[in-house]
Amino acid sequence: MTSAHSKLYSDDVSLVVVVVDTNPFFWAGAALPFADFLSHLIHFVNSLLLLSNLNHVVIIAAGVSSCAYVFDSGNAYAGGTADVAETLGKASRKMEEFIKQDARETASNGTVADGGAASLFSGALSLALCYIQRIFRSGTRHPQPRILCLQGSPDGPEQYVAVMNSIFSAQRSMVPIDTCIVGTQDSAFLQQASYITGGVYMKPQELSGLFQYLAAVFATDLHSRTFLRLPKTLGVDFRASCFCHKKTIDMGYVCSVCLSIFCKYHKKCSTCGSEFSRVSMPDLNSLPDQRQ
Amino acid sequence: MPQVMVVARNFMDMVAALPAAKLDMLYDSAFICEAVLRSFPPLAKKYVIQMLYVSSPMPAAAMQEWVLDEYASKHKVAIDRLLQLRVFVEVRDRRKEVSYKMNNKFQANMQKYLVSGGCLPREPLPISVTGRLPTLVELENYALDQWECFLLQLINSSQVEKGTTFSSSMMKTFQRGLLSSRDGEAAKLSENGFQFLLMETNAQLWYIMREYISSAEERGVDPTDLISFLLELSFHTQGAAYSLSTLTEVQRVAIMDLMELGLVKLQQGRKDSWFIPTKLATNLSSSLSDSAASKEGIVVVETNFRLYAYSASKLHCEILRLFSRVEYQLPNLIVGAITKESLYGAFDNGITAEQIISFLQQNAHPRVIDKIPIVPENVTDQIRLWENDRNRVEMVLSHVYEDFPSKDMFEQCCDHARDNGYLLWEDAKKMRLIVNAEFHQEMREFLRRQR
């Protein structure tokens, strides 16, 4: 690890990958209009770029059935300082295009039945980590990376395994995942993500002042975070999703070989194929304190 | 040995030393605000961002709450810096409670930045006017050549083929801190000068810029104009052409000098003439420690104390000669050896072992940079040991006490000095002791009381 650290820039130069939820099902009914949200976001990106000329910001949009890079300050500044206003304009156009494209894909997939669709955060997190790895491997020195998730829509339990895998790989490469919830409900996945990777999890009370939250908490570089009182998470929802029906469960069966989680008893593990012999124990589904 | 360090880092100290009115004037320009903000320590930057949309004064006590108690000193440093540069202004209300408010101009400029993003100080000339411009690589080579040429001229005027056109008086100002000349002798590099040569390019550049700015008044130029122009220059796009006609008179004179240093390249077209900022110029406002990142190293040190530098530059050769014995030079390679004699010569000139080691590490060749340690351990250890060899004798100002009337008295004195940790030497037979000079007063008091 030492060799990687000697390649870091001093102090506070950061690479921030912002994952933005563009789920139309969520934004249609959100308290904060998407356009306002976007302007808060652009302010925030500008303020990050203002802090140091070596700061690097990437925005990844996470839609319902796809995700994509929308903005990369590294491209925008190929020759020193370029016209930021124009590139950001381009970014919001790209964002619109992405949303349209995403809507088409969703329609053709036909998987989304009702309004409660989740955004593809597992994909977006993987993209973010890939990007960070690319930066790690290129060039002589690189900035301190971190990921910021702006999530509004509810978690998609079917992404549980993928999201957890991204979280652990973020932890391994020491990339904190910050979370700012712009929706109404807490996200168990991202609570765990921030908890495991040492990031900040926050759910702002007053969404109209989103920029102030972003600037006060999430603009802080990793170096300064050690000195500051930052918001602490009150509790973390550690519940897992089962592998068979993707339901969030309190209690379940765990494969003793590969640690896969199931909500119902199986004769054979669907992940690793080990066969279980039934031992006499009470049926989990009949326990009184079980919540789904 | 007294430690003399050339202070080159704190250009912003110079800005901070300007009178308040001038400083406020500087903040009219968004670029200067941006450069000032970027020069702050991380915590101070964070405060600025956090306070950007707060228009009423913020109580100091409340700001203290932001930081964990054990890091209060960091908070103080950040706030002091912000006050020094007048980005935060102290406000006292009726109850004498201190609050901080952000400088209005600064705040407005930064808010504008957040809304519209950064913009360029002036429009570059279109390609139709300028024709083919030098590529970035060509430009960088040009800048480094120019800079090297200047440095060579600075340290010894004999080796230079094509001199710069700096007037000798200007050159003297630059050399003031770096060369020492006794009457009738040729000027020699002073301790500062040696340390200057081992610094990275950007730090050197700032040192020269500081000298340049502080001597501005002698030339009848307002330093404020120069500072703002330099900071503005650093926000130009590297490699683009800007028309000279947009500059003021002062700036036009300054840009001629900057060309000599390699900060800009001047080109003449059919009608217009223009300047092209190089990397040196655009790095001016960036933080000093990070700017050397892209420079490729040249030095390989082997465990047998041999040193290979892949460079054709005379300057590198001169620098290596400071602390090693250069054995031979091939067209692209300088081969030397680090010897006890060569290092003693370096230590005599006031270079420290740490400086040499950090120079070797910072300029390591890409092939060895991934190794841990970059410079072989036995070499670094030996360099440090050789330095320690010279510091075996430590000078301490002290006093001798002798002719004690009785053995008793002598012993009491000894004990008293020893208990306080100031006894340096004692000779019980001849009843003499030596005590640190700091303790002399106390010792006299003690002796008087004994009588």
TrEMBL record, chain A:
Name the InterPro entries for this protein. Answer: TFIIH_Tfb4/GTF2H3, vWFA_dom_sf
- GO CC terms: transcription factor TFIIH core complex; transcription factor TFIIH holo complex
Top-rank lineage group of the source organism:
Eukaryota
Where is the major localization of this protein? Answer: nucleus
Query: What are the protein's GO molecular function terms?
Result: zinc ion binding
Where is the protein localized?
Nucleus
Keyword list (alphabetical) reads: DNA damage, DNA repair, Metal-binding, Nucleus, Transcription, Transcription regulation, Zinc, Zinc-finger
Pfam families registered for this protein in UniProt: Tfb4 (PF03850)
- GO biological process terms, semicolon-separated: nucleotide-excision repair; regulation of DNA-templated transcription
Q: Family assignment?
A: Belongs to the TFB4 family.
Query: How is the quaternary structure described?
Result: Component of the 7-subunit TFIIH core complex composed of XPB, XPD, TFB1/GTF2H1, GTF2H2/P44, TFB4/GTF2H3, TFB2/GTF2H4 and TFB5/GTF2H5, which is active in NER. The core complex associates with the 3-subunit CDK-activating kinase (CAK) module composed of CYCH1/cyclin H1, CDKD and MAT1/At4g30820 to form the 10-subunit holoenzyme (holo-TFIIH) active in transcription.
Biological role stated in the UniProt entry: Component of the general transcription and DNA repair factor IIH (TFIIH) core complex, which is involved in general and transcription-coupled nucleotide excision repair (NER) of damaged DNA and, when complexed to CAK, in RNA transcription by RNA polymerase II. In NER, TFIIH acts by opening DNA around the lesion to allow the excision of the damaged oligonucleotide and its replacement by a new DNA fragment. In transcription, TFIIH has an essential role in transcription initiation.
Protein name, please?
General transcription and DNA repair factor IIH subunit TFB4
What phylogenetic lineage does the species belong to? Eukaryota, Viridiplantae, Streptophyta, Embryophyta, Tracheophyta
TrEMBL record, chain B:
Q: What is the lineage of its organism?
A: Eukaryota, Viridiplantae, Streptophyta, Embryophyta, Tracheophyta
Organism of origin is: Triticum urartu
Q: What are the recorded Gene Ontology BP terms?
A: nucleotide-excision repair
The family assignment reads: Belongs to the TFB2 family.
Q: Name one GO molecular function term.
A: double-stranded DNA binding
Where is this chain primarily localised? nucleus
Does the record's keyword annotation contain Transcription regulation?
Answer: yes
Q: Which keywords does this chain's UniProt record carry?
A: DNA damage, DNA repair, Nucleus, Transcription, Transcription regulation
Please state the gene responsible for encoding this protein. LOC125540334
Q: Where in the cell is it found?
A: Nucleus
Task: Respond yes or no to whether keyword Repeat is given for this record.
Answer: no
UniProt cross-references to Gene3D superfamilies, sorted A to Z: 3.30.70.2610
The name this protein goes by in its record: RNA polymerase II transcription factor B subunit 2
Which PANTHER family does the UniProt record give? GENERAL TRANSCRIPTION FACTOR IIH SUBUNIT 4 (PTHR13152:SF0), TFIIH, POLYPEPTIDE 4 (PTHR13152)
Q: What does this protein do?
A: Component of the general transcription and DNA repair factor IIH (TFIIH) core complex which is involved in general and transcription-coupled nucleotide excision repair (NER) of damaged DNA.
**Per the record, GO CC terms?**
transcription factor TFIIH core complex; transcription factor TFIIH holo complex
Transcription factor Tfb2 C-terminal domain: which residues? 381-448
